[in-house]
Design brief:
single chain, 79 residues, mainly alpha, 3 helices, elongated
């Protein structure tokens, strides 16, 4: 699907949904710290919320990986 490969849409999603709410700290950052601390008392809704706020970042990492892969493949074809 073209929507998952749209750099602009993924970047806007990372800045808005991926970081919201912004204060006192980005929500995804708090969830990641919670998981790194052992995820004590995390319920199913907390895990879903982590996935929801983390999805834009996963899409960005996927796009960066695919871009890097295509650069490596294009350099191999030139050799």
């Amino acid at each position: 699907m073209k929507i998952w490969n749209n750099w602009q849409l993924v970047a806007v999603a990372c800045v808005t949904l991926g970081l919201a709410p912004f204060f006192p700290e980005p929500h995804i950052w708090g969830k990641l710290k919670w998981i790194a601390g052992g995820a004590n008392d995390m319920q199913a809704l907390d895990w879903f919320d982590t996935l929801f706020h983390g999805l834009p970042w996963l899409l960005l990492l996927r796009l960066l990986f695919l871009k890097g892969l295509s650069l490596v493949q294009s350099k191999e074809q030139k050799i």
